Amino acid sequence: MDTSSPTFSIRVADECFEDYILNSEFTFTVSGYAQVQIGAPVAQWQVDPVEPYLKNYGIDSEEFCNYRDAADSTVLVAWLDEQPVGHVVVSQHWNGFAHIDELAVDTQARRNGVARRLLDVAQFWSRKRGLPGITLETQNNNLGACRLYEDYGFVVGGVDHLRYRAIEPATRESAIFWYLLFDPTEVGQTEPS
């Protein structure tokens, strides 16, 4: 038996979710603010550089406690062996799309395909329910996430430059709304892609 490769699994969050959140690091480095151009690849967006700094949105495990047990949502945790390393919170949004409320991977587990596999499971969950696609939001200062979503097949559906002004009036942070639209002939497909 090969013990050099960790076993990867994704499970519904359990009572350990809060401990996992408290003991994980979800920061990312901000090195600039992108000027989002709908229809243009992320690589073509103009980025206004800033002195790099760490950003952490702060994840509140209690915020999602009801998602796990509801019929129209779930919280799924990625595990490498017996170590939780990432999670996705997905629900059915008011507009009929699946909505990824949160996708996060511990800094120590990044660049190993964890986020992509969590997106695969979110897509499976969405297709199984016959939803037309998935929507999520990220920000113009999280370029790594923007590249991930674009590479996965999401497209930008809109940008909100005012969304965070109540938190910080002078912010340059903008919300980017991404959509993964399923082929209408494949809605209801239950095999992960």
TrEMBL record:
Keywords: Acyltransferase, Transferase. The keyword Coiled coil does not apply. Residues 37-183 form the N-acetyltransferase domain. It comes from the Bacteria. The keyword Transferase applies. InterPro entries: Acyl_CoA_acyltransferase, Bact_Acetyltransf, GNAT_dom, Streptothricin_AcTrfase. Pfam families: Acetyltransf_1. This is GNAT family N-acetyltransferase. It comes from Pseudomonas lutea. The lineage of its organism: Bacteria, Pseudomonadati, Pseudomonadota, Gammaproteobacteria, Pseudomonadales.
